[in-house]
Specification:
This protein is an alpha+beta fold. Among the domains are: about 120 residues, Immunoglobulin-like (Sandwich), CATH 2.60.40; about 120 residues. It is built from 7 helices and 26 strands. The strands form 5 sheets. It has a 6-stranded mixed β-sheet. The chain has a 6-stranded antiparallel β-sheet with strand order 21-23-24-22-25-26, with helices on one face. Strands 14-17-12-11-20 form a 5-stranded mixed β-sheet, with no helix packed on it. α2 packs antiparallel against α7. The protein is elongated. About 25% of the residues are buried.
Length: about 450
């Protein structure tokens, strides 16, 4: 009984002691919400350390572009290096409440949303403890600069500087007896750094470089490579080489397989290089001028190419055009040209559907395919089993197929995800942006409309 009484007294005493203790540490600070580039502000930090004594450290960690200088240290030593400011006390001030202050300064290059983290570390009852202050964010720069930097950082976190994509097309033309000129054209967006074209040559041929576009050319064991350690910024890059026979050949066009690869974040991405089929003028019948085109000649070509078009990337199947006078078929311009209906009977216009009136302002679509040749509607639907409306653009020498009309980026993003999930033959649909009908980058469109980017 006596023992139980003493145990009860001890427990009661411990509870009374615990209830009498204050919270160990309280911290308040007042960093700014907004700052201009090159500006500075003084931050006051108020600490209530309760009965904590002895060694302690107050550390502030800031993003690149922010610099911290001491104003009042309350007896602590101060250092700032690699984005970390440290106030270190060998013995804390005797007063339970004291304050320190520091000056925070933005560098001229600082823009966007910058984080400021603070932590107070100390020894309490022979244990190391940390008191973390909630992360504070400082908006640096003008509203436009902050939005632009936020978009850029969000994309970089996902390994995307832009919505990266690449298309590669190969053309083979005779260039002498059993000699062939091979041209590979790469259209890209949002790619930088290392990239490579690799082509597997047929037996009996060797190759010499004609145009490298800054790449390093090599040829070994029937494989040629064009390697860029930092691929040019141009949207379209062309390389060219010549195939030379080393043994007797039968005059047939050589079969070449190849790929274009590049780095996206830490991943190596690889796409096949598609081969366009060209119908040479001398192979066309001389009496086809004005003749009515019957049947679907492309469907026959597609059936013969089943192995090729099994790869969802391949869209470069040529439409043999009916012969017309030069005045009936105007040449496409270099800038983006949106297709529209006309009275021409040319079969290459048969795939142009759902063409609305010219749009104004900023809007978004989803690009689903692209190639060097114009596919008829029936062929496109057969290749991709795609029954929804689409538009055709002639942009920088490529026929680009886009669908949808969205004034909000998130709506276009959602449509892209829907299409990707529903149609498995498209090679990575992505969002495109326009301003008064002119194609612009998604980042620029988001800046203009002050909309948020979504992965």
């Amino acid at each position: 009984m006596t023992r139980t009484f003493f145990i009860g007294i001890q427990i009661l005493g411990f509870l009374i002691f615990s209830l009498g203790q204050k919270e160990e540490v309280k911290i308040k600070h007042n960093p700014p919400e907004n700052m201009g580039s090159g500006e500075e502000a003084v931050v006051l930090v108020e600490l209530d350390k309760s009965d904590v004594t002895g060694f302690a450290k107050y550390q502030i960690t800031v993003d690149e572009g922010l610099v911290i200088e001491v104003v009042e240290s309350a007896g602590a030593s101060f250092t700032f290096n690699n984005g970390k400011a440290k106030f270190i006390w060998m013995a804390l001030p005797a007063n339970e409440e004291f304050s320190i202050s520091y000056r925070i300064r933005t560098t001229g290059a600082a823009k966007g949303k910058k984080a400021l983290d603070s932590r107070f570390s100390y020894i309490y009852e022979n244990e190391r403890k940390n008191h973390d202050v909630p992360t504070h964010y400082i908006n640096v720069g003008t509203p436009q600069e902050i939005v632009a930097e936020s978009i850029k950082e969000s994309m970089e976190e996902k390994g995307m500087n832009k919505e990266a994509y690449a298309l590669a097309d190969r053309q083979i033309r005779p260039d002498g007896l059993n000699q062939w000129r091979v041209t590979v054209e790469i259209e890209k967006e949002g790619l930088s750094g290392f990239a490579k074209v690799e082509e597997n040559l047929p037996e009996g041929y060797t190759a010499i470089d004609f145009k490298s576009s800054g790449a390093v050319f090599s040829s070994m064991d029937q494989v040629i490579k064009y390697i860029w350690y930092d691929i040019p910024e141009n949207d379209v890059i062309t390389i060219s080489y010549k195939l030379l026979p080393v043994i007797a050949q039968n005059g047939e066009e050589p079969k070449i397989e190849g790929s274009f690869s590049y780095l996206e974040g830490e991943e190596t991405m690889e796409i096949p290089i598609s081969s366009g089929i060209e119908m040479m003028a001398e192979e066309k019948s001389k009496d086809t001028t004005g003749a009515e085109v019957t049947g679907d000649p492309i469907a026959d070509i597609v059936e013969e190419m089943e192995e090729v078009i099994a790869e969802p990337m391949v869209v470069a199947v040529s439409t043999p055009p009916a012969k017309t006078k030069e005045t009936d078929t105007p040449k496409p311009k270099e800038e983006t040209v949106t297709a529209s209906f006309n009275d021409s009977k040319s079969p290459t216009d048969a795939n142009i559907i759902d063409v609305p009136q010219p749009e104004s302002g900023v809007f978004y679509r989803v690009q689903i395919a692209a190639g060097k040749n114009n596919l008829q509607k029936s062929v496109f639907e057969k290749l991709y089993t795609f029954q929804e409306g689409y538009k055709l653009e002639n942009h920088k020498g490529w026929f680009k197929y886009t669908t949808g009309y969205h004034q909000v980026y998130k709506s276009a993003r959602d449509d892209r995800q829907r299409i990707t999930g529903k149609y498995d033959k498209f090679q990575g649909p992505f969002v495109t942006a326009y301003n008064d009908g002119e194609r612009i980058s998604v980042q620029e469109a988001l800046m203009i409309t002050a909309q948020k980017w979504y992965p």
